[in-house]
Write a structure and sequence with these properties.
Structural class: alpha+beta
Pfam families: MarR_2, ROK
InterPro entries: ATPase_NBD, HTH_MarR-typ, ROK, WH-like_DNA-bd_sf, WH_DNA-bd_sf
Protein name: ROK family transcriptional regulator
Radius of gyration: 23 Å
Number of strands: 18
Largest sheet: 5 strands, mixed
Strand content: 15-25%
Family: Belongs to the ROK (NagC/XylR) family.
Number of helices: 12
Shape: globular
């Protein structure tokens, strides 16, 4: 929908307010850019016909976008009735969006162009995070500087950077709690801005599951799905939730703690200090102990141990090992119990299993789907299906870059240089 002269905008604090010309133009520039993202190549006349903007306005807006090097002309087309038309596509060659992820044993950087194509994807081991946010932020800053330097060398201007953290992150970029990192009340955004010397691009901090679901919706097999849940399969189980095309963050940004849904108050101890949480039944530690009892029931697993153990579980499952298959079936059923709660509350069209869950998804999904169907109030699980993510382990970092692209699509356009 476009905004014209005399329109008003809604604000949370003050109700309807007049929209000034600058607001209207920024909104309409974003409308044209979004249209090109999904329909390019197309002509100015195509844009006008679809959006309802008049042709003169579209011509002015396109000129502005070309000046900003967000759009370019690609020649004429004659496959149409009437005169040939100049066709338009996204450009964005001078720009890049960056996402970083910090997790319990690695750092990741992903950069995307305006079309969502990867410009770089880096991952490195990092084990100095436990209870040491200063060291972690220094490492993040070093990775950010290296990433921005590479992009600058390639002639690209960074439009924004978003950091993914596995924990509770408020709207100001403060990590209230990241149990796996040993963090409490860490102002990641402020500290990182200081470490980077107040860079000239926006910097945000967000929960990793929230960013992963944005990547799944924009870059994955579920592209365009308006009601979507992404489950992280890492040291904890987080849920990124999109409802009616909007990210569900909650009042303070703490929505999505899927792993701490209480299944049984008398159940096993959870790392959060409570008992019977879903994570205590279906988190990676629980999966490994159930499938590989030789690891030791009381053994505390470090995140660096997850990979080799999950690889072994995957190998044994493929070979038909009865014990491992039974363990994965039980894990899938526990996931299904939690997913039924979500399905009854928000009725997603699709739940995507990400992280380490992706590799064992073929053995989790059947049992999870049965439990979901049995516990859903609506017939046929309300239409909710469970699938494995097609994105790799950098989904949260890619989602960080996607968050920047979303801001561009919403009107936060770069100024011409």
């Amino acid at each position: 929908m476009f905004v014209g002269r005399g329109s008003s905008v809604l604000t949370r604090e003050n109700g309807p307010q007049p929209a000034d010309f600058a607001d209207v133009r920024a909104t309409n520039l974003a409308v044209v850019l979004r249209h090109l993202r999904t329909h390019a190549p197309c002509s100015r006349a195509d844009i006008a016909a679809t959006t309802g903007l008049n042709k003169a306005t579209v011509s002015s807006l396109v000129t502005d976008l070309i000046d900003r090097r967000l759009v370019r002309e690609v020649g004429m087309t004659e496959n149409r009735i009437g005169r040939p038309a100049v066709m338009l596509v996204l450009d964005g060659s001078p720009y890049a969006a960056v996402g970083l992820e910090i997790n319990t044993d690695y750092l990741t950087a992903v950069a995307l162009d305006l079309a969502g194509e990867r410009l770089l994807s880096w991952r490195r081991a990092f084990t100095g995070t436990a209870g040491q946010p200063g060291q972690a932020i220094a490492a993040l800053a070093a990775l950010a500087r290296r990433t921005v330097s590479k992009l600058s060398h390639d002639g690209r201007r960074v439009l924004g950077l978003t950091v993914a953290v596995p924990g509770l992150v408020d709207a100001d970029g403060v990590v209230e709690l990241a149990a796996g990192l040993g963090w409490q009340r860490v102002d990641v955004r402020k500290s990182l801005l200081a470490a980077l010397g107040e860079p000239g691009y926006p910097l945000l901090v967000e929960n990793d599951a929230n960013l992963a679901v944005l990547a799944e919706q924009r870059l994955g097999d579920q592209s365009g799905t308006g009601d979507l849940v992404y489950l992280t399969g890492g040291a904890s189980i987080g849920a990124g939730i999109i409802s009616d095309f909007r990210l569900l963050r909650g009042a303070r940004g703490f929505a999505g703690e899927f792993g701490h849904l209480p299944l049984d108050p008398a159940g096993p101890a959870c790392g959060c200090g409570r008992r019977g949480c879903l994570e205590a039944y279906a988190g990676l530690g629980a999966v490994i102990r159930r499938a590989l009892p030789e690891v030791g029931i009381e053994t505390a697993l470090s995140p660096s141990e997850f990979g080799p153990h999950m690889d072994e579980i995957h190998r044994l499952a493929k070979s038909g090992d009865a014990h491992v298959l039974a363990a994965l079936t039980e894990t899938g059923a526990r996931l299904g119990q939690g997913l039924a709660i979500l399905a009854n509350l928000i009725n997603p069209a699709c739940v995507v299993l990400g992280g380490y869950f992706t590799g064992i998804a073929p053995w989790l999904i059947p049992a999870a789907s049965l439990e979901l169907a049995a516990r859903s109030a609506a017939a046929d699980s309300g239409g909710t299906v469970i699938v494995a993510s097609a994105l790799d382990s950098s989904a949260a970092a890619a989602g960080g870059a996607t968050r920047v692209l979303d801001a561009i699509d919403s009107g936060a356009l770069p100024t011409p240089r």
